[in-house]
Amino acid sequence: MKLLLTVAFALLSACGASAQEITIGLTMGATGPGASLGIHYKNAFQLMPKTIAGSPVKFIIYEDKTDATEAAKNARKLISEDKVDAVMGSVSVPSTTQIAQIATELKTPLLALSPVALSPDKLEWVFVVPQPTPLMMGAVVEHMKAHGIKTVGYIGFSDSWGDLVLAATEKEGGPAGIQIVTNERYGRADTSVTGQVLKVLAANPDAIVVGGSGTGGALPHVAFVERGYKKQIYHNHGTVNREFIKVGGKAVEGAIAPTGPLIVPEDLPDDNPIKPVALDFTKRYEQTFGEGSRNAFAGYSYDAFLLLNAAVPAALQKAKPGTPEFRQALRDALENVHNVVGTHGIYSMSPKDHSGLDSRARVLVHVDNGTWRLLK
Amino acid sequence: MNTAIALWLSQDAVMNGAIYALLALGLIVVYTVTRVILVPQGEFISYAALSLATLQAGAVPGTVYLLIIAGVSVALVDTIALVRRSPNRGAASATSPRNDASGAIARILFWNVLVPLLVAAAAWWSASRRDLLVLQVLVTIAIVTPMGPMLYRLAFQPLANASILVLLIVAVAVHYMMTGLGLVFFGGEGLRSQMFPGLTFQLGILSITGQSIAVVITAVVLILVLAVLFGRTLYGKALRATAINRIGARLVGISAEFSGRLAFTLAALIGAVSGILISPITTIYYDTGFLISLKGFVGAIIGGMTSYPAAAIGAVMVAFLESFSSFWASAFKESIVFTLIIPVLLWRSLTAQRIEEDEEP
């Protein structure tokens, strides 16, 4: 009898739990061309809490090999078969754009972990966690203005990331009277950028902006330094990791890049509300994945979770997880989160703004004695 | 564009062209001897470059474990094949068959188990000695080169008589497997090894690094060694004979399996040397090698997959096209380089005589 009761009780509580369990789906490219970023995005899920606003949370993680078609397939499967309450992903702009279209079609909230190439009116179900590229490059442009830079040579990846960084630099730099004089492109796997570097140097710009990411940003930087370029070289927030410095060595000393506060939480003033959140996350991340392994991408995954964490209580009051009503309620709640402190910034969403970040979400860092430090 | 820029671009092209030419030669050796289009050639480049960088960073690269596992697998496969074959052999051979078999097993174990273990020990020992750059280079070559014949034994020898298409599909599968393992071993970020200490000197406006001279000299020396190997030595002649007529070669006592292993060893060695040569010049990722060897492949296609000199010239042509298009239209560089293959193929298919594959069983 006692046994029967226990079993019945266990079954009941199991039912109760599963009724309230929140399921989150992730499609991520931890292999393929985006692997260097995707691995970090995925790593963060090892550090996620087991509950979200008191309800147990289950993560379903699929691999998309940095392939937009594969990412779209995963997103469809997550929503229609696994019945997730929210989707996260993915590593590249084309992949995330595909997922965004499917999330909108199937009416499931998406926390985009990379920028999305869609106009704001198509983002009804999409919330973009990373800082908008113009916000980041705006910080670079401010630094240029302060140092009297008028002409900029651009060299970037021959993919959508290279396009985004160029567009953001043009958008922010145009009103500031900064002119972009070259638009050279290269591939991550190129063995040489001599041609592009010579073309940029022939234009003799006041500064150079590199639109690469990770260690890929080091190749042109080193080539410029080898050719005797002495002026400032700027990078973007995709480049800020320790591998970039390891590969670039002495040549990249002095490089300036925008990034989220979680790269340099130790250097932030104590009254910055982001400091404790970022410090806690980087500490836990480095405990698990090694000293110096901190990076922006894991922070985006974590911030996506924090956003859900803030939105779920309101949604739970309206509907049960696993239902279309809950997904609708979750979307509405996400649109109304206010002052959610993440590792990258402070998110305040509105129907017009599905990014919710402001200039508190960016800092300028520079390579100082072989590490990224806050530029003061 | 002025003369200075044209000179710089040419300097760059000559260096890359030397590497592409080496790779084109490796591809042709393997293709003519075994009819395998060696898609995983590029992985040897990545493995070598990244293993060297890992050794220099003071760690033992994951490729060492792959070498040991592959070696043990080859030993197992070879021993099983030997045991299966031995009853017939034993009956035929008059002198003590047991001794013969145990000698063969000892040989198999020596080459496939003991040698990889020795290489692993050397890797472990040299990882902690950062000043011994030359030793680390040699260890890297010793790690990557044996993977060639092992790969042949495990993936291609059992299919030696399959059609070119089947061999190509297997080659693509091996490529994906090795790329995936590369990601596991080295992670997604790129690595760069230290520059070989050397001189930089000024020739007119060109500043020439010791590294780029080393690349060109090594490539030229390797090409000459290959020419001597094919023209003068018995092994080289055996390879050539197999390339020209597989059945005829077998009839005169040249083992197709031996030729295959030799061809793959050469290809892996060429890949390893190329990887080591370029690793201080550029950032190498786990998947970079494929793109580099693809450019060597375009060179090899220009040579019709048979002619070594034409392939070498084709490879240098690819490098020049790449270098100059990176100056004029950098966004379309790869498209321009790979579009080159279309007119070449057209011209080839119009001029060359078609050889029916079915003629050879």
Please give a structural write-up.
The complex is a heterodimer of chains A (376) and B (361). Chain A folds into 2 domains: 2-131 and 294-358, Rossmann fold, CATH 3.40.50.2300; 133-259, Response regulator (Rossmann fold), CATH 3.40.50. Chain A is built from 12 helices and 15 strands. Chain A has helices spanning 2-20, 35-43, 68-80, 93-105, 133-146, 160-173, 194-203, 218-226, 242-248, 274-289, 296-318, 324-335; strands spanning 22-28, 51-52, 55-63, 86-89, 110-112, 126-128, 151-157, 179-186, 207-211, 232-234, 256-259, 340-341, 346-347, 363-368, 371-374. A 6-stranded mixed beta sheet of chain A has the order 2-3-1-4-5-6, sandwiched between helices. Chain A has a 4-stranded parallel beta sheet with strand order 8-7-9-10, with helices on both faces. A 3-stranded antiparallel beta sheet of chain A has the order 11-14-15. In chain A, helix 8 runs parallel beside helix 9 (242-248). The longest helix of chain A has 23 residues, at 296-318. Chain A is globular, with a radius of gyration of 22 Å. With 361 residues, chain B is mostly helical. Chain B has one domain (3-91, 100-195, 210-352). Chain B is built from 15 helices and 2 strands. A two-stranded antiparallel ribbon of chain B has the order 1-2. In chain B, helix 2 (41-56) packs parallel to helix 7, helix 8 (210-232) packs antiparallel against helix 11 (256-278) and helix 13 runs antiparallel to helix 14 (333-339). The model of chain B is unreliable at 90-94 (pLDDT under 50). The A-B interface holds A 30-31, 33-39, 158, 183-196, 198-199, 202, 214-216, 218-219, 241, 243, 246-247, 249 and B 5, 8-9, 12, 15-16, 19, 180, 183, 187-192, 278, 281-283, 285-288, 291-292, 323-328, 330-331, 333-334.
